[in-house]
Amino acid sequence: MEGTSLLIWGMLFGAIGLGFFTYGKKQKAVVPLLIGISLFIFPYFISNVYILVIVGIILVAVPYFVRI
User: What pTM value is reported for the model?
Assistant: First the structure.
């Protein structure tokens, strides 16, 4: 069951990362662009569901607090 959860959460964060990536590319904003790329990549390196969700939520929240 953990493998399925990892897949679904990784796909969800990847979809959110796609949104951040396209927004950052169109608006030429560095922070959303980098967060989008990191949301694509980080699920490959984390094998614990709880850590995956916590890191994903932190990464999704970063562009709202960091404005460059």
Answer: 0.89
Task: For residues 32 and 51, give the distance between their C-alpha atoms in angstroms, rounded to a whole number.
Answer: 21
The pLDDT tens digits of the residues spanning 34-61 come to 999 999 999 999 999 999 999 999 999 9
- Lookup: tokens for 8: 């679904």
Element (H, E) at 30: helix 30-41
- Residue 14: other Cβ atoms inside 10 A: 17
| DSSP-derived 3-state class of residue 10 | helix
The C-alpha angle with vertex 45 and arms to 62 and 9, in degrees rounded to 5, equals: 65
20: nearest Cα among 8, 31, 9, 5? 31
Is 21's pLDDT higher than 80? yes
